[in-house]
UniProtKB/TrEMBL annotation:
<keyword id="KW-1133">Transmembrane helix</keyword>
<dbReference type="GO" id="GO:0017004">
    <property type="term" value="P:cytochrome complex assembly"/>
</dbReference>
<dbReference type="Pfam" id="PF01578">
    <property type="entry name" value="Cytochrom_C_asm"/>
</dbReference>
<keyword id="KW-0812">Transmembrane</keyword>
<dbReference type="InterPro" id="IPR002541">
    <property type="entry name" value="Cyt_c_assembly"/>
</dbReference>
<dbReference type="InterPro" id="IPR017562">
    <property type="entry name" value="Cyt_c_biogenesis_CcsA"/>
</dbReference>
<feature type="transmembrane region" description="Helical">
    <location>
        <begin position="164"/>
        <end position="193"/>
    </location>
</feature>
<feature type="transmembrane region" description="Helical">
    <location>
        <begin position="288"/>
        <end position="309"/>
    </location>
</feature>
<keyword id="KW-0201">Cytochrome c-type biogenesis</keyword>
<feature type="transmembrane region" description="Helical">
    <location>
        <begin position="223"/>
        <end position="247"/>
    </location>
</feature>
<feature type="domain" description="Cytochrome c assembly protein">
    <location>
        <begin position="102"/>
        <end position="309"/>
    </location>
</feature>
<feature type="transmembrane region" description="Helical">
    <location>
        <begin position="130"/>
        <end position="152"/>
    </location>
</feature>
<feature type="transmembrane region" description="Helical">
    <location>
        <begin position="12"/>
        <end position="30"/>
    </location>
</feature>
<dbReference type="InterPro" id="IPR045062">
    <property type="entry name" value="Cyt_c_biogenesis_CcsA/CcmC"/>
</dbReference>
<dbReference type="GO" id="GO:0005886">
    <property type="term" value="C:plasma membrane"/>
</dbReference>
<feature type="transmembrane region" description="Helical">
    <location>
        <begin position="262"/>
        <end position="281"/>
    </location>
</feature>
<keyword id="KW-0472">Membrane</keyword>
Amino acid sequence: MTDAAWETLSNQGVAVAGLVYFAALLVHLAEWATLRQPAPREAALVGAEAPPASTSNARRTAAERAAFLGRLGFLLTCIAAGAHLVGLVGRGMAADPNRVPWGNMYEFTVAGTFVVTLMYLGLHRRFRLGWMAPLVVTFVLTTLMVAVIWLHEPVQPLREALNSYWLVIHVVSAVIATGAFTLGGIASIVYLVKMRKGSEATGSTTTEGWLGRVPSLDALDKLAYRVHAFAFPVWTFAVLITGPIWAHEAWSRYWNWDPKEVWAFITWVVYAGYLHARATAGWKGRNAAILALVGLATLWFNFIGVNYFSSSSQHSYALEAPVERPAGS
């Protein structure tokens, strides 16, 4: 295949992934709608009390329909992830010479959303994350749309600063941590929503509809903590070890006070504070969830925002096409 054919395949793969993600989102929204069945006490309030047997059958039918839609949505998400991977591989194969598909913000974003999906699929069964599906799919679909509409650029060779094996080590670890932090942030958001629906004092929560499938507040809090505890050392490796080593190789300095480096360190400090507060001060629940969301905001601002709002960053090449150098220069 020619480079142009690979690039076309990449664009088609991302487009197909977006369409299938959208189909998966519709299926999961239908699953939510199926779960919103009136409780027997609600039927009694409107004077339409149903016999116990018919109520039980209706609930059983609704549960079976919701389970089928959940499995279908998961299958569609797997298919979308496959198309997503094709888009990434095609992007790297379209370059001459072939390279990893992380040369600009469009490619970073496509890779980052793929890792979010991959981590969700990998942890789905172990942590029973079916309740998280609509949120993950919505996030991935929205971010992919932003990438395609505003960030897309033609395939170009890597800039000199990026042409290093440290690109693979640094970016892989950073993207894995970003995907994990994002899943932990989603768990923290759901924690705050469920807590608001129930009573903060007693821990009771709404048990009907979609929130009825969400784990207890304690389980959500533990899930967020576990995911963040996994992501933090990976982020530390990316930001404080491989990043400075690569910076020294590219710019002859381990630390340049570059806006990207500063915000990456701010993100590290916020998440370090989150884990330290939980381990020493016993911070759990609402305060921990809010701090986790502060970390998520700094993380994604560092990932995308710094490149747009900073004109002095040495990482600004992520938004620019490389400048061709004269032969022999």
